[in-house]
Design a protein that fits this description.
The protein has about 90 residues and is mainly alpha-helical. It has a domain of about 60 residues. About 75% of the residues lie in helices and about 0% in strands. The protein is elongated, with a radius of gyration of 32 Å. The termini are far apart.
Length: about 90
């Protein structure tokens, strides 16, 4: 289904008019002005909670990495002991 040329031109004109007639925007209390308001305090708490979540997730990934390193070292040591005992059995 094709959009008629008039509709596309009207839409493009509307977008251009709204872009070129920009009005100044006013920030909320968290970003502009009252930094001691309840909104700013809530935003700060939210930031700290999200930082905590990121820390917990990254700590879990790092802990899993350490677990894998430890288990692979145990398996390598067991394989080395097994191959050593197998080679000493063949010599006898």
């Amino acid at each position: 289904m094709k959009t008629p040329l008039v509709t596309r031109t009207l839409l493009a004109g509307l977008v251009a008019a709204s872009t070129l007639s920009a009005q100044p925007l006013f920030a909320c209390a968290a970003c502009f002005g009252k930094s001691d308001s309840r909104l700013a305090l809530g935003m700060n708490y939210g930031i700290f909670v999200l930082l905590g979540v990121v820390f917990v997730v990254l700590s879990g990934v790092a802990g899993f990495g350490f677990y894998l390193v430890k288990k692979s070292a145990e398996v390598a040591a067991a394989e080395a002991a097994l191959s050593e005992s197998a080679s000493s059995t063949e010599k006898v």
